[in-house]
């Protein structure tokens, strides 16, 4: 007799797809990632991707929004009183250091994907808002962390 899998709570597949998308899009970029790989990583059948998101582009934007929100939340909880300032170094180094590598990788890939005309408007809006929230220095540090995570943690000096 086949054992039945436990039912997931409403919205759980969507959350799993976003988490899987953070990893897959972060590693391979928008064009290098298939919805089949995201579905496999999330442990759901591929049709569930399109039951939760109309398009791959919609899933990508949901992942970018999630990563940006988590980075803003971490920066705010890191005690930065200057959050929201657009001056250089608006956040403390400790709040930037709290950035998850999958979030940083995804934002680096989103920055690259912003060159694609159909992705540009929404990505520029989300990335621009994050840039304003963090400030120039902290935003650049997040992107540098994303690049380091893609390189496997190696720096140019190594």
UniProtKB/TrEMBL annotation:
Pfam families: TetR_N. GO terms for molecular function: DNA-binding transcription factor activity; transcription cis-regulatory region binding. Residues 11-71 form the HTH tetR-type domain. InterPro entries: Homeodomain-like_sf (IPR009057), HTH-type_TetR-like_transc_reg (IPR050109), HTH_TetR (IPR001647). Residues 34-53 bind DNA. It comes from the Bacteria. This is TetR family transcriptional regulator. It comes from Leucobacter luti. The lineage of its organism: Bacteria, Bacillati, Actinomycetota, Actinomycetes, Micrococcales.
């Amino acid at each position: 007799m086949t054992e039945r899998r436990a039912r997931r709570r409403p919205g759980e597949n969507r959350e799993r797809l976003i988490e899987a998308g953070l990893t897959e899009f972060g590693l391979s970029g928008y064009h290098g990632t298939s919805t089949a790989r995201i579905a496999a990583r999330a442990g759901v059948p591929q049709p569930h991707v399109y039951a939760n998101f109309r398009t791959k582009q919609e899933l990508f934007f949901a992942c970018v929004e999630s990563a940006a929100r988590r980075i803003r939340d971490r920066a705010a909880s890191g005690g930065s009183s200057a959050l929201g300032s657009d001056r250089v170094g608006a956040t403390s180094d400790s709040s930037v250091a709290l950035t998850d590598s999958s979030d940083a990788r995804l934002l680096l890939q989103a920055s690259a994907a912003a060159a694609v005309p159909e992705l540009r408007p929404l990505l520029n809006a989300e990335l621009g808002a994050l840039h304003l929230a963090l400030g120039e220095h902290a935003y650049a540090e997040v992107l540098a962390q994303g690049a380091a995570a893609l390189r496997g943690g190696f720096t140019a000096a190594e």
